[in-house]
Amino acid sequence: MNDSIPVIRDVDQGTARLLPDVDRERAWLLTVDGAPQSYVDLDAPEHLEFEYARRLAHVVDCAAAPGAPLDVLHLGGGALTLPRYVAATRPGSRQDVAEADLGLLELVVEHLPVPDGSGITVHGTDARGLLERTAPGSVDLLIADVFGGSRVPAHLTSVEYARAARRSLREDGIYAANLADGAPFGFLRSQLATFAAVFEELALIAEPAVLRGRRFGNLVLVASPSPLDTATLTRRCAADAFPARVEHGAALDRLAGAARPVGDGEAVASPEPPDGAFSIG
Fold first, then answer.
1. What is the pLDDT of residues 201-211, one digit of tens each?
2. What is the pTM of this model?
3. φ and ψ at residue 70, rounded to 5 degrees
4. 142 found inside a domain
5. Starting from the edge strand earliest in sequence, which strands make up the sheet with 245-248, in order?
């Protein structure tokens, strides 16, 4: 049992809390202003508690042969859940992480440090700024999980941003983003149109209830310049403890409908979640 004491600290974007998991000895839940941000088990970094994190991990697992190291760029750090997962399952990977909340970064480094030799380098900087400074064609996998409060910032939703993401990737590289939306999916549709204008291949991972518009929730957008192994991804997502569907091709075209790509000038943040959609306590 974890008998550690909760840690509460004001950070750049609100009040952060590190809450010990009573069932796992060195596991912690990170929240900011009551909204869950990350869950980390320091003894078992391959253990993923959040559904969206498990779906991003399925993308990681399908990105290359099992155990093969990857060059990964993470936009958004939180408690470094996915970087720790990659380091544990793909030793030797080189990973760069952008985290703009310096107070949050200091909290995580102090209380949830990553092991020496993990290959994880954290940069206290804006996600898009680091992306635009990344060498072209140097990234195998780009994972975007950036939320200002409970919303994806507008400057990480535009065609210009999507082009910067594509530029950073190798020709067989993969982009995966954690998004949040609900019916009638105005934000999601615009993201599908925006990334379809830049990438040749798209897929979407989500719980069926979210796709049917029954509730607001997380959706993982996957994009690549090269064909995606949607069959393997579909099997992994369907077999998960929290089953999800993988949509691609004509189904995604129908979902996008008449939505148009958005540029920097008209980009907006993802919608505010309904009360109680993600908050705890």
1. 999 999 999 99
2. 0.95
3. -130, 155
4. yes
5. 120-123, 94-98, 71-75, 139-144, 169-181, 217-224, 201-206, 245-248
